[in-house]
Design a protein that fits this description.
48% of the residues lie in helices and 18% in strands. The protein has twelve helices and eleven strands. Strands 1, 2, 3, 4, 5, 6, 7, 8, 9, 10 and 11 form an eleven-stranded mixed beta sheet that branches.
């Protein structure tokens, strides 16, 4: 089903949005696309069996004056990987962008990344940094700035620093490697980025700036640390088979990073005993790797603080939030200085 105007010459970018009962956050997601400073793109929205009116929201958006062209694809519920693969198959542009229905893009994102992809034909995939917002859109004062410039498979293997909603990738490369693997419950994106990176190493390019907002909420798959741990083990087994030369040297680092990540998910879910156990395992697997990163230091501190009396924990937490707010205020002031 085609909604809205179309580009006669064809779009430069197809933005694939998989949706399953995403009505709560879909309006903000689509509004962020309408606010882009570059407009030669289409939206391919794959409704993966929603029952909450997500399709009606997409149709209403497409009828708005000046809305980007939107094609609505409806299918029975098949999972996020199958929905993204359907979007790739339906896309008309040579470049594919992925945007989850609960995330948003900053206004300059399309322009900044398409400039890279058009300037650098050897780059297969580009990604950016992202901020983190809460369920109601509030700034959680967290952001991730991944490595910038050209990145190879050896840099990516220990830790997935590429968030799916930041990615723009060449459709020809996706078709060559076969898209997302629907058999994976988690880390299906990481596994695909690795297959893409293996084709012509290095061929990934990062922009170390926040051009996407990742929404943290209770219903997302990544809030389930058990599912994420299972997904990572499946990907790690494949890496061991495909890279017998690289994997042994990187295995400890990769285990440490992913155990730390699962610990952070357990903490966000209020599962403190699991958080402690996972962080202890992460430090045993590679304390040096954990403590080299800000997130690892923070999670190590959280683990230690969790043994303190509750009033002391709350006081430390309030002080930490105040420091982060001061840091963000200074960063924002510096960003607008002439």
């Amino acid at each position: 089903m085609v909604c809205g105007p179309s580009h006669d010459s064809g779009p430069a970018l197809s933005v694939v949005i998989p949706v399953y009962n995403g009505a709560a956050f879909l309006p903000a997601c689509l509004a962020s696309l309408a606010a882009q400073t570059r407009h030669d793109f289409e939206i391919v929205l794959v409704d993966d069996g929603s029952t909450d009116g997500s399709a009606a929201i997409a149709q209403a958006f497409a009828r708005q004056d000046g809305a980007p062209p939107l094609r609505l694809i409806r299918q029975d519920n098949s999972g996020v990987s199958a929905a993204r693969n359907r979007g790739i198959a339906e896309a008309r542009a040579p470049l594919i962008g992925f945007l989850d229905s609960d995330d948003t893009w900053e206004p300059q994102k399309v322009a900044r990344q398409l400039a890279v992809m058009e300037r650098e034909p050897g780059v297969v995939l580009s990604y950016t940094g992202f901020g983190i917002i809460g369920q109601s859109g509030q700034d959680l004062l967290e952001r991730s700035l991944p490595p910038g410039g050209l990145v190879g498979v050896g840099q990516l293997m220990p830790r997935n620093f590429i968030h799916t909603s930041t990615v723009i990738v060449r459709r020809s490369a996706l078709q060559a490697v076969g898209g997302f693997d629907p058999s994976l419950r988690a880390f299906e994106d990481f596994e695909l980025w690795l297959r893409l990176a293996e084709r012509d190493d290095p061929c990934l390019f990062g922009l170390s700036e926040v051009l996407c907002q990742y929404r943290r909420h209770e219903t997302q798959t990544t809030s389930n640390w058990q599912a994420m741990a299972e997904g990572w083990r499946a990907v790690a087994a494949r890496l061991e088979q495909r890279h017998p030369d690289l994997w042994p040297a990187l295995r400890g680092q990769a285990m440490a990073h992913n155990l730390e990540y699962c610990a952070s998910l357990a903490y966000n879910a209020g599962e403190i005993a699991d958080m402690r156990r996972l962080m202890q395992q992460a430090l045993r697997a590679g304390a040096l790797h954990v403590l080299q990163r800000r997130d690892g230091i923070i999670m190590s501190g959280i683990m230690l603080c969790s043994y303190l009396p509750r009033p002391v924990q709350l006081g430390i937490g309030r002080g930490f939030v105040s420091l982060r707010r001061c840091k963000r205020f200074v960063e924002n002031r510096l960003a607008v200085r002439p």
